[in-house]
Amino acid sequence: MAIVALYNMEGVKTGTMEVSDAVFAAEVNKPVLHQVVVNYLANQRQGTQSTKTRTEVRGGGAKPWRQKGTGRARQGSIRAPQWTGGGVALGPKPRSYRFSINKKVRRIALRSALSAKYADYKVFVVDGLEVDEIKTSKIAALLKGLEVSKALIVTADADEKIYKSARNIKNVTPTHVGTLNTYDVLKHDAFIVSKDAVAKIEEVLA
């Protein structure tokens, strides 16, 4: 079994605990990580960019000059793509960039991301990750004690007090196991997780 250190809310080490090798000490599959990150970013795109074609721009109803006899190239409309103010040829239109990947692949990627953090000694398990009131200074003290600045904080379930205490800290993202994803794990330098959340993650991924 893999061993991780246990910390309290002041960032002081209080002991150690065993975690699943299948989740935190698995082989890192880089191709799968890449595929899942590309999928995540593609699914975040709004796809609302749009340009007007020659049928959508205003004007251009009359032929600018007669077909023959002027010595100039024939033109049918001043709103053709080659004209200034004309429509755009083959420009972007609203579309969806979403595509799906198998749930099994997503789980492999998440295991790989967690294992990579564990291998880099960037997994911090906090025993009793909770606050009595919404207080940013409590989370700031935890980060200072752990000596990390860019961190993903994961609780077992949605915790409004933790979320509101951490959301205003730069480069810190609070979340819970239900919304945990590979991109967020890789994006942050440190993975701070509650002891209860570790058990829940192992239950989902093992």
* Rg, nearest Å: 27 Å
User: Unreliable runs, pLDDT <50, ≥5 residues?
Assistant: none
Q: CATH superfamily assignment of the largest domain?
A: Ribosomal protein L4/L1
* CATH second-level architecture of the largest domain: 3-Layer(aba) Sandwich
Topology (SSEs and partners):
Elements (H helix, E strand, L loop, with lengths): L1 E6 L5 E7 L1 H4 L5 H15 L58 H17 L3 E4 L9 H11 L4 E5 L4 H7 L5 E5 L5 H6 L2 E5 H11 L1
Parallel strand pairs: 1-3, 3-6, 4-5, 4-6
Antiparallel strand pairs: 1-2
List keywords for this structure.
34% helix; elongated; alpha/beta; single chain; 6-stranded mixed beta sheet; 206 residues; Ribosomal Protein L4, Chain: A
What does this structure look like?
With 206 residues, the protein is an alpha/beta fold. It has 2 domains: 2-45 and 99-205, Ribosomal protein L4/L1 (Ribosomal Protein L4, Chain: A, 3-Layer(aba) Sandwich), CATH 3.40.1370; 47-96, no CATH class. The chain has 7 helices and 6 strands. The protein has a 6-stranded mixed beta sheet, sandwiched between helices. Strand 1 and strand 2 (13-19) form a beta hairpin. Helix 2 (30-44) packs across helix 3 and helix 4 (136-146) crosses helix 5 (160-166). The longest helix is centred in the middle third of the chain and has 17 residues, at 103-119. The mean pLDDT is 94.
